[in-house]
Each structure stands twice: as C-alpha cells, then as structure tokens.
Design goal:
The structure is a single chain. The chain folds into 2 domains: 31 residues; 158 residues, no CATH class. By secondary structure, it is an all-alpha fold. The chain starts with a helix and ends in a 5-residue tail after the last helix. It has a two-stranded antiparallel sheet with strand order 1-2. It has 6 helices and 2 strands. About 10% of the residues have low confidence.
C-alpha cells in the first residue's frame, strides 16, 4: 500500500509538471511584461461571456477599418473574433502601453494603416486576388494556412500573424519573422505570393 501511494503521488506530480511546465516557462520568459493572468483569469471567473478564461474587457471603441482599392476581401464592419480580445488593451484608448514599444504609436480607433483583420480568407478570395495562396496550401509552421493561421470562421485575425503564446519577446510576437533581418519574412509569404 505504501509503495502504491508513493507511485500515485509521483504520477500526479509528473502529470502536473508536464501540464504546467509550458505555462511556467512562458511566464518566466515574459516576466518583465505579463504573466498568464495579464490575459487569462483563474477559476473560470470570465469577464467576457463566451470567451473562455478571458481576463480582459471587450473594447468599446468604434474602429475605422482597413480599406484599399487593391484589397478585394469583405471586411467585417468592426473587429471580430480574437481581434476584439487583443483590442481590449491595444485599442489606443485603454491604458498606455507605449512602454512596450516606444517607437510605435497606436492611434485610437485606427485600423486603416494596419494589415486588414476580420475578413474571410478562402479559396474564392485567393483566386480573385491572384496574389494570395489558397488557404489549403501548407504554411511554414506545420499544417495549412487554414489550420495554422485562420480562425474558426476562416477569418484573418490579429492572431494570424501575432502568436502571444509561443513567440519570443522582442520580435513583436510575429510568427516566423526574422526580426534581425526585417525583410524576406516567411510570415508574409505564408499567405502572399511574392
């Protein structure tokens, strides 16, 4: 009985270490910025209904969305999906985050000069545009563009380019971007034919 109890305790401990290690590593890597509770809330005490473990508030800002004569997608009237979560803090109206990147000023309610978000990226758009890869093509991070970069509604969102959970500090949380070179980015080439 004594040996069985110790093996059970060791098994539980090993399981917890396996589950929590990525979280602890992420918190340590970003200790000068935020730990998990900067975005997530413990004990299922959600502040934003329908978004699991979210510790932020929904932005109340009305945004001017991206538009361009060359863009052929249909952008939602306002940000949708997880982009709304990002904009809960990064909307230019909430607490000043300029200390994170003093060389960049995020204008309140302006998404005009940003990469478009909250639009459906599908085969029809890729065909119409001619300069986009089909979302069924492989991405450079593991699966397809659809699986790796688009949300459940096949939309491009902030998280399509920014990976807050696995990217390193100092690289603007961009997927596959060579921050040292600042050109020839595989990130852009995952979707764009260049």
């Amino acid at each position: 009985m004594f040996m069985k109890m110790n093996f059970t305790k060791v098994g539980i401990l090993a399981l917890l270490v396996g589950i929590l290690t990525p979280t602890v590593v992420m918190a340590l890597a970003h200790s000068d910025l935020f730990t998990c509770d900067g975005c997530h809330t413990p004990h299922n005490a959600d502040t934003l209904p329908g978004v699991p473990l979210w510790n932020g508030l929904d932005t109340t800002v009305t945004f001017t969305m991206y538009s361009s004569k060359s863009f052929q997608g249909a952008i939602d009237g306002q940000p949708s999906g997880d982009s709304k979560l990002c904009l809960g803090c990064h909307d230019g109206a909430n607490p000043d985050y300029s200390w994170m990147n003093p060389d960049f000023l995020f204008e309140a309610n302006e998404l005009v000069n940003s990469h478009p978000i909250s639009f459906i990226y599908d085969s029809a758009l890729a065909t119409l545009d001619g300069a986009l890869k089909d979302p069924s093509e492989a991405s450079s991070i593991g699966a397809t563009i659809l699986e790796d970069l688009l949300d459940r509604e096949s939309k491009v969102q902030c998280s399509s380019c920014h990976d807050v959970h696995t990217s390193g500090v100092g690289d603007n949380l961009l997927r596959g971007y060579d921050y040292g070179l600042q050109y020839g980015s595989e990130l852009c080439r995952m979707c764009h034919i260049k």
